[in-house]
Amino acid sequence: MKRVAIIGGGITGLCSAYYLVKAGHDVTIVDKGNITDGASFINAGYVTPSHFVPIAEPGMINQGIKWMFNNSSPFYIKPRWDMDFFKWSWYFKKSSTKQKVAKAIPVLKELNEKSRDLYAEMLASLDFDFHMERKGLLMVYKSAKNEEHEAKLAEKGKELGLDVSVLDKKALHDLEPQFSEDVIGGVHYECDAHSTPNLFMKNLKKWLDNKGVKFVLEETVTGLEVDGKTIKAISTEKNTIEADEFILAAGSWTFPLAKKLGLNIPIQPGKGYSMNITRETNITLPAILTEAKVAVTPMKGFTRFAGTMELSGDNNTILPNRVEAIASAASSFYSGFTLTSEEKQSATSGLRPVSPDGLPFIGKSSKFKNLNVAAGHAMMGWSLGPITGKLMSEIIDTNHTSVLLEPFDLERF
Are the C-beta atoms of 229 and 371 separated by less than 8 Å? Predict the structure, then answer.
């Protein structure tokens, strides 16, 4: 049995703890919050083998520059003087090539499929209760341009062996009658699943608590005690936590913590927004409204509208016009549906940890023999939580890992 300290109580940290407890280890989780909010709670809840294309697509930086002065755009980069962001942007641009994207596609597809299967295993284990359904995910569109783009991705999905079908207007509206008349079609990825994140997080945390996992909450890591190539302890304002192994799974805060150790793990916070609608919407299937980049998910007890990628630094500021953009997309894509002012005022935000190439950082540090990193999952953090947690347990136990780790090398930048 090893003592393992996990910095970060998001989906990655809790899933790491789950598999480490299963393997018989003594686990402590340290988080600067109280594990009740943030990206792991407000995300769209998708488990998505369909998301096999990384965010660093060719042309994405150019599109971001075009949208830079429109802070209601789906992908918004706030103009600011920030050397760390400039470096990250340069890495992003270098990663945005057809060759690198093609190399990443099978890697992301494998990770997502394995993680989806692990979610199913967790549900079947009855360790804790959570909501998950496999109804697939719709990619819907209004324009011929997006129809062509999504059709090409669907063909690639079929080549990869995914269960996917292209729907014309009639077939789409038969499947989900709530769509407005000008939604001309969609692609249905029946390989995908969806869940209710806040229920999963709450019940997994309770299970971990009952299994003896120690939680050090609302305390920020202020220092790390190092002896040569070994980390001895981490310090907070109130506590010192000693351990045999450490996992850095602090989401968008991983980068500044890694810098304290002289490591370059470039991650930028990508803000996302969401609103929970508790009244009946009659929406039955998860969907991404492609023109607006808005995700819609029927969850347990409510429907969630989420979206946007905002690279504006480490802040949780809610920009009203970005909320309005999500609300506008909802009323535009769904017939007779309008979000109320109270529902828009309930909007919340979370910071996704975005790597420059769209692939997470997963592995053991070469600089410190007992430091493990799991971060940078961008918009796939929820989908990849279980597989990342299992990989952390396998790395610490020095077992054969479920997937090859080379693409997730901590030092690739």
Answer: no
Q: Residue 12: its pLDDT value, please?
A: 98
For residues 380 and 116, give the distance between their C-alpha atoms in angstroms, rounded to a whole number. Answer: 12
What φ, ψ does residue 225 adopt, rounded to 5°? -90, 120
pLDDT band at residue 367 under the 50/70/90 scheme: very high
Rounded CA gap, 226 and 29, in Å? 19
CA dist 49 to 17, 33, 146, 163, 375, Å?
24, 30, 20, 10, 19
Which helix (DSSP H) or strand (DSSP E) does residue 235 occupy?
Answer: strand 230-235
The reported pTM is: 0.95
Residue with tokens 């946007």: 308
The span from the CA of 61 to the CA of 92, in Å, is 8
| Amino acid identity at 21 | V
Conformation bin of residue 281: beta by default, left when phi > 0, alpha when psi is -120 to 50: alpha
Rounded Cα distance, 52 and 105, in Å? 5
Instruction: Look at residue 66 in the predicted model and tell me its pLDDT.
Output: 60
Distance CA 294, CA 142 (A): 13
